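Morning!

This is the sequence you dropped in the shared folder:
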Amino acid sequence: MGRFGSNAPTCSRTAPDPRKCCATPRALVLRSGMPAFWFGLLADITVVLHLGFVVFVVAGGLLVLRRRRLALAHLPCALWGALIELAGWICPLTPLELWLRARAGESGYGGGFVEHYVIPVLYPGAMTRGVQVALGIAVIAVNVAVYGWIWRRSRAPARVTD
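The structure's back. Tokens below.
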């Protein structure tokens, strides 16, 4: 359900500590004193950043074609992304997002970011271990191809024009 839907915690108007409870879901304030809306917003920002990271892992090598120094950031990210997929781990951004959603009074989801957001778009079926390994291999293959091309291009003799 949405940020202020039926999954939001409810409470009575006679709560002894208004910071722990609220009168309406829209005004929900959690124990931290931070309104639930902000936790939901931070969760949404985490999703956008996570998606950006996934895109950078997969296609960041193409940016390296234009800016070689980006390789210093991209290579560790690509290795991390491939390791997460090949090892069957969950990226630490996923539990962060779920924690933020719980703090916002929203329900989370099972599995990881890729299984919840990316796989349903790319594949109608559920994420299997085989698909996860294939994604890890695809990340490696795409980046090896791009970096191989960059390396070959940098080793080729410069063309002289008259």
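Headline: The mean pLDDT is 75.

More detail when I'm at my desk.
O.
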